Amino acid sequence: MPAQTKGSKGRTNAVRVLVVEDEQLLADAVATGLRREAMAVDVVYDGAAALERVAVNDYDVIVLDRDLPLVHGDDVCRKVVELGMPTRVLMLTASGDVSDRVEGLEIGADDYLPKPFAFSELTARVRALGRRTTVALPPVLERAGIKLDPNRREVFREGREVQLAPKEFAVLEVLMRSEGAVVSAEQLLEKAWDENTDPFTNVVRVTVMTLRRKLGEPAVIVTVPGSGYRI
Asked: Among 53, 99, 155, 203, which is most exposed with the fewest C-beta within 10 angstroms?
């Protein structure tokens, strides 16, 4: 998808994550797990590539290994701070020394997680940091008879549980967090899919159509011609 510049506004609140980790198996496993939690995730394996990504894309959270090739994780973190980005940094390290954790926090990291870690803890920390990049909203979202709990990954409509696939859940979360504002297809692509998604695909339209069907009647997702969707 086309890169969105740092000057872009109109951010929606589903979490977009950049995973920066030179152990490719670990990086890909973390990305796969976060995507299953309905997050949009990009992956790079060195610090230079990380700097290229943060220069053109808006990320809510960077999961950043400290010991990276080409550009050290510390320098990536410093650059994020220097640019004044709202992005939060969760730093990973193989060292559990308190001095290392303190040093990482002092250069601008928002949180610190030593390896090995429990994936459930990583997910909880990413979600917590993601909430800090945007205006605080209730942990359970309610609108138009729909109740969405991001932490439990549960959706109810008028008391009836609705089973959604991860992308359907992510799209619904973006729409509900927009609080009635129109969300464009481009914004949905940015927040619910990763950068490898073809910007000309009809995946947004198909996902919204399936989501409407699962939510049932009367339809609550409104199509605004030429602009996008809203609830």
From this structure: 99
